[in-house]
Amino acid sequence: MDEITIVIINYNGLELLKKYLRSVLDTDYPNKEVVVVDNGSKDGSVDYLKSLGVKVIPLDKNYGPAYARNVAIRTFRTKYMAFLDNDVYTPKNWLLPLFEVISNDERVAACQSLYTDWPYGEEPREIPWFSTAAALTRRDYLEKVGGFDDYLFFYWEDADLSWRLYKAGYKILMVPRSKVLHEVHGTFKKLPSPFTSYLLMRNQLLLLLSYYNVKQLLTLFPLILTARFLSAFSPPNRKAKLKGIFSALINVNYILNKRKQIKYIEKVKENIFFNLLGDEIFGYPEMKSIREAISKRVITRTR
């Protein structure tokens, strides 16, 4: 069995670690190592982890989950690397189904566990992006396409990485036989709400500005930008959301450099990530087609 490094990102999550970490340590996989990258916690998390004998990489401040995951990618050289949020309960058998899927197809760069009642049946299926709440990846594939984007800090960084993986010719699967329980936004609650509103708005627009082709930038993006601008006036955190919009629009150097990076790694012209948008579970159909998004909303309201 290939060695797997299981990486948990933590930020002031002592209570979450006490609730969920032991389930991860009890994972039924013979060749694993559990590592926690701690983003400058001040709540005693590091001392608690050391008391359990868990390997911990303590950072001097909160650099964000994207940066912390990249630290793990650079530090450990295992072929496979699993990522978990610190608010996830893992049954003993969660990891093996992921390993069986990813190890049997070299094109699979990442596969994700099911962590809510999504109607996905039992067979693996392709999805637009993997969530780092609970996923197994080929570490070297992530490294080849540049890893997580540190600048995004938090939110949409997993979608951004997934889009690059698709561009590089890989694919991403949901594996319903791997089930976990996720206390969604367990760490989110410890972050300032205006900051998260800012990141959500900024990073989504940066994603589209980076990956849309010229036609989409001229036709689809203005419509989405208008919709996001109007939604920013709804509470809460109006100023933070408007700041996120303007931050994305003026960040020309970032966008140009990102588009160059994408062009450099691109091996597949078909935009598979884009085609998968609007999935019943993952949503965001407007990023692919405003008409499709309106149609789906009308259908939902008439049910």
Task: Write up this protein.
- The chain is an alpha/beta fold.
- It has two domains: 4-188, Spore Coat Polysaccharide Biosynthesis Protein SpsA, Chain A (Alpha-Beta Complex); 191-302, no CATH class.
- The protein has helices at residues 14-25, 45-51, 65-75, 95-103, 139-144, 157-167, 193-211, 214-231, 238-250, 252-265, 272-276, 290-302; strands at 4-10, 32-39, 55-59, 80-85, 88-89, 108-114, 125-126, 134-138, 171-179, 181-182.
- The strands form two sheets. Strands 3-2-1-4-8-6-9-7 form an eight-stranded mixed β-sheet, with helices on both faces.
- It is globular and about 55 Å long.
- The protein starts with a strand and ends with a helix.
- 41% of the residues are buried.
Arithmetic mean of pLDDT = 94
Helix-strand topology string:
EHEHEHEEHEEEHHEEHHHHHH
Largest sheet data: 8 strands, mixed
- The third-level CATH topology of the largest domain is Spore Coat Polysaccharide Biosynthesis Protein SpsA, Chain A
Q: How many domain modules?
A: 2
CATH architecture of the largest domain: Alpha-Beta Complex
Radius of gyration, whole Å: 19 Å
Helix share of residues? 40-55%
Q: Which structural category do the helix and sheet elements fall into?
A: alpha/beta
Task: Provide a short characterization of the protein structure.
The chain is α/β, with parallel strands linked by helices and 303 residues long. Helix content is 46%, strand content 17%. The protein starts with a strand and ends with a helix.
